[in-house]
Inverse folding.
C-alpha cells in the first residue's frame, strides 16, 4: 500500500463526537473523510487492528484505511484539531478556565510554574500566537508585562500592532513556556537571557531568537522571527534605483577594499549584505562571515557566530578569519576601534570586506570611522563606497487610491505643485488585506556615496560629515529622502512614510 501525499489530507476537520486528539496522536491516525456507512482514515501502522476495531465499535461505521507518513499525520492532527484549528480568543478563554488557580503573587514556585507552562492550554496559546505571527509575516513578537495587563504585539512591516492579549494571570506561564522552548532557565528572572528555537510552522522551518529582560512587572520577552523563505536574495527586488544599482554592482565586483552599509537597527542592512554575497558567490571564491547573530544560513558561505563570553569577539574572530585565506569577508558590525582597524588592514591586504555601521547617512560612516581612530590615510586607501538605507512600507495594492497631498507634505519633499501637474500620488485606504493600515510589504530607499578622489581629499583633511556630504551632493549623490520622493512619484509608497524614516536634508 503506497502512502498518500500530504495534499490529500482534508482542509477541514472531520467532526466526530468524543474523538480525542490524544488518542489520534497516540495511535498515529487522522480521519480523512466520512460518508453514510464508512469512515476513511490515514494511519501510520495499517496493521493496528486495536485502533481500527475501537473506531468501528465507537461509531458503528466501516473503517477504510490509507497508509500515511507519521510526520504527515501528526502535522495534520495539529493543523486540524490542535491550536491551528481554534481562534486565539477561544484558546485564551479555555486557558483562562483551565488555569484559574495560579500561583500566589510574588515569586512563583519554579516547579509549579514549569507544570503550568507544560499544560495543554498554555502550549496551544503560545503555538497559536507564534503561528499567527508567521502567517502575518511579522518580524517580531513582543510579550510585555505592565501593572494591570499583559500585552502581546506583533511588528508588521516595521510598525508594532496589538495582538489578542492573554489575561494578566497567564503572564508567568506564557513567558515560562517560551523560555522552556528556548531551553532557558525559568528560575532566573532577574537577569536578561538569550536563546533560540527552531520550529516547523506551515510547512516551513523557521528560526526564532528569544530575548528576555527583567522589568518592574515581570519579564519582557521578544521573539525575533527569522523566516528564510521571506528573504529576497535578488538585488533588483530590494528597491535599488537603476542608477545606484549599476554603481553598486560595479562596486561589489572589485577584488579588494571595504564596502559599508549603514542605517539604524531594522533598516534591512543584513538582507542587503546577504543578497550581495549571494550575487557574488561562486565556486572559485571563499566567503567567511562573522555575525551576531547569524540570522540566516547561506549556502556555500562559512558563517561564524560571535561568542563574547568565551572571547570570540568581532575583532578576535576577524583576526583568525584572515588566516583562513578568504576572498570575501562579512563583518556583521564594526562596533569598536579594534574591529575597525583590523577590517581596514584586511581590506588593504587583498580582501573584499563588507560591514555595517549605525549612522544616519552615508557620509556619517566616514567620520564615524575617523572618530574611532582609523587613520585617514588608511581609510582613503581602503574604503570603496558607503550605502545608506531605510525601509519604507509599500502601499497596499488592494486598496490603493489617488491621494491629494497637503502643501506641507509637498514642501517637506522640496517639491512644487508644478512638478506634480502630470503625476498622480497614491495612498492606501485600508482594507482587510493590509489589516486596515493602507500598507503591505516593504521596500528600501538608498543613498550611495562612492569614495572617489574628491571624497578622498576630504577624508585626508578629516572634514566633517556636512562637508563630505556637500561634496557628494555636488557630484550628484541622491539622498535617502530624494530616493523616497522618487518612489512616492512612482506610486510605491507615501510621503508620510518617507518622512517617518528619513531626516530633513
Amino acid at each position: 500500500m503506497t502512502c498518500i501525499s500530504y495534499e490529500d489530507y482534508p482542509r477541514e476537520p472531520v467532526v466526530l463526537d468524543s474523538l480525542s486528539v490524544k488518542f489520534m496522536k497516540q495511535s498515529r491516525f487522522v480521519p480523512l473523510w466520512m460518508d453514510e456507512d464508512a469512515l476513511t482514515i490515514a494511519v501510520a501502522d495499517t496493521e493496528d487492528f486495536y485502533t481500527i476495531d475501537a473506531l468501528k465499535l465507537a461509531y458503528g461505521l466501516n473503517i477504510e484505511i490509507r497508509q500515511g507518513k507519521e510526520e504527515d499525520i501528526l502535522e495534520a492532527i495539529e493543523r486540524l484539531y490542535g491550536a491551528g484549528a481554534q481562534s486565539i480568543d477561544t484558546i485564551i478563554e479555555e486557558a483562562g478556565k483551565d488555569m484559574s488557580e495560579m500561583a500566589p503573587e510574588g515569586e512563583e514556585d519554579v516547579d509549579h510554574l514549569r507544570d503550568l507552562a507544560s499544560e495543554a492550554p498554555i502550549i496551544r496559546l503560545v503555538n497559536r500566537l507564534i503561528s499567527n505571527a508567521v502567517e502575518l509575516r511579522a518580524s517580531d513578537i513582543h510579550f510585555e508585562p505592565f501593572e494591570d495587563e499583559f500585552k502581546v504585539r506583533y511588528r508588521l512591516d516595521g510598525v508594532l500592532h496589538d495582538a489578542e492579549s492573554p489575561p494578566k494571570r497567564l503572564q508567568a506561564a506564557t513567558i515560562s513556556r517560551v523560555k522552556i522552548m528556548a531551553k532557558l532557565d525559568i528560575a532566573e528572572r532577574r537577569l536578561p537571557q538569550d536563546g533560540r528555537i527552531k520550529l516547523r510552522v506551515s510547512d516551513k522551518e523557521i528560526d526564532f531568537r528569544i530575548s528576555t529582560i527583567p522589568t518592574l512587572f515581570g519579564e519582557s520577552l521578544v521573539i525575533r522571527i527569522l523566516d528564510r523563505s521571506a528573504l529576497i536574495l535578488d538585488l533588483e527586488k530590494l528597491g535599488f534605483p537603476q542608477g545606484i544599482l549599476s554603481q553598486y554592482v560595479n562596486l561589489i565586483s572589485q577584488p579588494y577594499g571595504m564596502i559599508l552599509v549603514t542605517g539604524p537597527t531594522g533598516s534591512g542592512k543584513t538582507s542587503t549584505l546577504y543578497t550581495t554575497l549571494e550575487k557574488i558567490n561562486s565556486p572559485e571564491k571563499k566567503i567567511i562571515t562573522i555575525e551576531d547573530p547569524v540570522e540566516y544560513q547561506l549556502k556555500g558561505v562559512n558563517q561564524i557566530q560571535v561568542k563574547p563570553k568565551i572571547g570570540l569577539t568581532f575583532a578576535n574572530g576577524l583576526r583568525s578569519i584572515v588566516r583562513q585565506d578568504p576572498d570575501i569577508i562579512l563583518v556583521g558590525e564594526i562596533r569598536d576601534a579594534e574591529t575597525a582597524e583590523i577590517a581596514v588592514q584586511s581590506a588593504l591586504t587583498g580582501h573584499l570586506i563588507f560591514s555595517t555601521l549605525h549612522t544616519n547617512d552615508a557620509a556619517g560612516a566616514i567620520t564615524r570611522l575617523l572618530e574611532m581612530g582609523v587613520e585617514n590615510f588608511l581609510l582613503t586607501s581602503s574604503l570603496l563606497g558607503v550605502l545608506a538605507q531605510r525601509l519604507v512600507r509599500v502601499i497596499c495594492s488592494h486598496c490603493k487610491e489617488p491621494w491629494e497631498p497637503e502643501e506641507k507634505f509637498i514642501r517637506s519633499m522640496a517639491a512644487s505643485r508644478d512638478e506634480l501637474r502630470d503625476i498622480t500620488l497614491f495612498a492606501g485606504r485600508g482594507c482587510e488585506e493590509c489589516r486596515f493600515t493602507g500598507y503591505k510589504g516593504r521596500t528600501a530607499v538608498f543613498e550611495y556615496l562612492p569614495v572617489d578622489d574628491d571624497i578622498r581629499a576630504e577624508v585626508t583633511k578629516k572634514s566633517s560629515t556636512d562637508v563630505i556630504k556637500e561634496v557628494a551632493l555636488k557630484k550628484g549623490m541622491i539622498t535617502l529622502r530624494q530616493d523616497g520622493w522618487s518612489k512616492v512619484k512612482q506610486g510605491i509608497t507615501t510621503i508620510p512614510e518617507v518622512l517617518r524614516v528619513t531626516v530633513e536634508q
About this structure: The first helix runs from residue 21 to 27. The chain is about 35% helix and 25% strand.
